[in-house]
Amino acid sequence: MMKLAIAALLAGSAAAFAPAQVGKATTALNAFESELGAQPPLGFFDPLGMLTDADQEKFDRLRYVELKHGRICQLAFLGQIVTRNGIHLPGDIDYSGHSFDSYPNGLAAVFGESAIPQAGLIQIFLFVGALELAVMKDVTGEAEFPGDFRNGALDFGWDTFDEETKLSKRAIELNNGRAAMMGILGLMVHEKLNEIDMVADLPIIGALQ
Asked: What is the mean pLDDT of the chain?
């Protein structure tokens, strides 16, 4: 499971630096090199060739996956920072009286002897599945771009922004998601390094125990 998680993150980050919107593509280089997401210092970056001869449909799908991975990883990285600073939900996680802070942080909360019970993991899996299938998607068909899940309800002033501001905010989200993908991958690797006595004292978080 650990290897699958790292492989998924690597695949997501490899496609992460590809750009954002254009018409039909014949080659990745001339079709997408000037679009949102292809920015300094790397510019257009598609080492796996996933956009070679890509059309708009394939590109939109890859952009959607990139945004989803980035959003998940931002939440994951934030969760690492919060819980490793001793901040947990109050109360118990089950009827047996186990408190939320009685379980370890990071991967150890999912894998290992002290992990959350299987029933709890199943509940998390079902909850995430429900969000994926029914909530975190373009339900109404009003999306302006891949990853737009406002569905005519959540706006936060988006429609008041000019096009330049919208592009800037979308680029910021892409960059934050890309950084989070690399960041959470780094934390996962460092956490596993502890098992071979290579403890890293990281900024903000400290040593991963």
From this structure: 81
Give the span between the Cα atoms of 75 and 79, in whole angstroms.
6
Q: How far is CA 75 from CA 24, 68, 181, 184, in A?
A: 33, 11, 10, 10
Alpha carbon distance 191, 199 (integer Å): 8
Q: What angle do CA 43, 14, 57 make, to 5 degrees?
A: 85
DSSP 42: T
Are 61 and 138 within 8 A, CB to CB? no
pLDDT tens digits, residue range 92-128?
988 888 899 999 988 889 988 889 988 889 999 999 9
Q: If we measure between CA atoms, which residue out of 73, 62, 65, 59 comes closest to residue 23? A: 59
Q: How far apart (Å, rounded) are the C-alpha atoms in residues 178 and 181? A: 5
Specify the pLDDT at position 74: 97
10: CB partners within 8 A, 6+ apart: 185
Residue type present at position 148: D
- Is the pLDDT confidence value at 37 over 50? yes
Per-residue 3-state assignment (H helix, E strand, C coil) for 111-147: CCCCCCCHHHHHHHHHHHHHHHHHHCCCCCCCCCCCC
Please, which residues have CB within 8 angstroms of residue 62's CB and are 6 or more apart in sequence?
Answer: 15, 18, 50, 51, 54
Per the CB < 8 A criterion, the answer to whether 191 and 2 are in contact is: no
